[in-house]
């Protein structure tokens, strides 16, 4: 599923990102998944969406990650 997730981000396919996230048993694992790119650590869906100019997908990914952090007790910063 992570491969489909990252491909959807590369393609700017917001509907698929939403569907995959909603149907995932481990949505946090999707948000954290990486795929080899130009860096040694790879690129996340946010990296791929941003580098492809898919602003709507990038905004959704940021919002979704922030919501998940709030649900998990994350402080959201400083």
Percent of residues in helical segments?
A: 55-70%
State the end-to-end distance.
33 Å
Radius of gyration: 12 Å
Q: Count every helix, treating DSSP H or I runs of 4 or more residues as helices.
A: 5
Mean pLDDT: 84
Describe the overall structure.
By secondary structure, the protein is mostly helical. The protein contains 5 helices and no strands. Helix 1 packs antiparallel against helix 2, helix 1 packs parallel to helix 4 and helix 4 runs antiparallel to helix 5. The chain is globular and about 30 Å long.
What's this entry about, in short?
With 78 residues, the protein is mainly alpha-helical. It contains 5 helices and no strands.
Features:
mainly alpha, 5 helices, 64% helix
Please describe the topology of this protein:
Elements: H1 2-11, H2 14-23, H3 27-32, H4 45-51, H5 55-71
Helix pairs in contact: 1-2, 1-4, 4-5
């Amino acid at each position: 599923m992570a491969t489909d997730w990252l491909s959807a981000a590369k393609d700017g396919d917001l509907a698929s990102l939403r569907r995959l996230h909603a149907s995932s048993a481990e949505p946090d694992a999707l948000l954290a998944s990486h795929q080899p790119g130009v860096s040694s650590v790879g690129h996340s869906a946010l990296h791929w969406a941003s580098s492809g100019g898919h602003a709507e997908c990038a905004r959704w990914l940021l919002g979704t990650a922030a919501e998940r952090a709030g649900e998990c007790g994350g402080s959201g910063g400083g």
